[in-house]
Design goal:
54 residues; mainly alpha; 1 helix; 46% helix
């Protein structure tokens, strides 16, 4: 983005393709976070926190 726009919100000047690309990226990142969390708590009893090995 250039600063020629002035004080207008830069998001409203983004193209549809750029917005779609950002959305796809955010969805993919969220899916990755969820997969890691599911793997982490996969064998835990529902409703209980992770058991700490001491």
């Amino acid at each position: 983005m250039t600063k020629r726009i002035g004080n207008k919100d830069e998001a409203q000047h983004r193209s549809k393709a750029e917005k779609a690309r950002t959305r796809r990226f955010n969805i993919a990142m969220e899916a990755e976070k969820r997969a890691l969390a599911r793997a982490k708590y996969r064998n835990e009893v529902k409703g209980r926190g992770a058991i700490q090995a001491a």
